[in-house]
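Example 4.3 (complexes with small molecules)
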Amino acid sequence: MGTDRIEIEAEPYAFELLPDRCALLIIDMQRDFLEPGGFGEMLGNDVSRLRRTIEPNRRLLAAWRGAGRPVMHTREGHRPDLADLPPAKKIRGRGATAIGDAGPMGRILVRGEAGHDIIPELYPVPGEPVIDKPGKGAFFATDLHAILQNRTITQLVVTGVTTEVCVNTTVREANDRGYECLVLDDCVGSYFPDFHATGLAMIKAQGGIFGWVGTSDRLIEAISKRGSTPGAERAGV
Ligand code: TIU
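Answer. The structure with tricarbonodiimidic diamide bound is encoded below.
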């Protein structure tokens, strides 16, 4: 187990990535949030604002997989019988269509439906855990913490949607559980540009109260230089 650190340019100061201890956690890059006709649009949002994150996430995912590092994905959604859907969440927004109702990509935010699944551009490959979560945070009512602990992960690179909702909630939950989080500005997105900026500002304020904010370019550059074999540099290979 190496103790190397890779310095990643970030705010409020450099993130010291521990290659053997860091996972990429991609939050809720689901068709229901990113494609027309899903839950996001049903809430009155412009989904194109989230779609700018697809290409940077795709590039980062390829580099991260290429370096042999662990990847985990989350999906927000509920059981087909909706037994895990809080009544307060179902009625929130007073919209004409609610979670569990029929939509253009199947029942809205229901596990097993097309809209609930991850967009094809970032689809998980075998061996990458997919965490199904009923809430906004990825640690609430899931086995994510156990999975990370079993793999001795202590750091998370967090990407996905939306910046101020599921990404922020997850980063706060992770921080309280002792994880160091690096959030990538270009790989997280919001339906609201102001909330995106403020959501990131909240994470990095006060000396990084919840974590660090960086960009995918800096991270890709750093991990690509390092290569896929931890220890190779040390051994002078
Ligand atoms: N509505 C909104 O901004 N987000 C969510 O409902 N879920 C996630 O952020 N994934």
